Hints:
Layout: E1 3-8, H1 15-20, E2 26-27, H2 34-42, E3 48-53, E4 59-72, E5 82-97, H3 98-103, H4 111-114, E6 120-123, H5 125-134
Parallel strand pairs: 1-3
Antiparallel strand pairs: 1-6, 2-5, 3-4, 4-5
Amino acid sequence: xxxxxxxxxxxxxxxxxxxxxxxxxxxxxxVRNYQARNFMREMKLGDLGFFYHxxxxxxxxxxxxxxxxxxxxxxxxxxxWDCVDIKAVEPLKTGVTLADIKAxxxxxxxxxxxxxxxxxxxxxxxxxAMIRKMGGx
Length: 137
């Protein structure tokens, strides 16, 4: 199993909207960055990810699971763009902010710190465990 982080502006797609989709989940569509697309192509069923509210909130708020592997993004006819489907698993008890992560030297090499603009990114097993703990899980 691998771990990931999915970033969304809450005004566009929020944690509450993700939760409302239930077990069917939702396409993580609209990604138009090759590196982010390639990460989605690596994902397998059951991989887990953090759901991150970008822009104003800048915090990890929940955990999602990949429920459909990479397939054509339904928002375009351009065959270059794939997406995965994700479903909500559980909220963090306490949101983990970008400021919290940046203040902790253990995360200096984390993709969220080093490549903060990338909308889909990998998370190491150690980062996963530490952030879950910070979030009260």
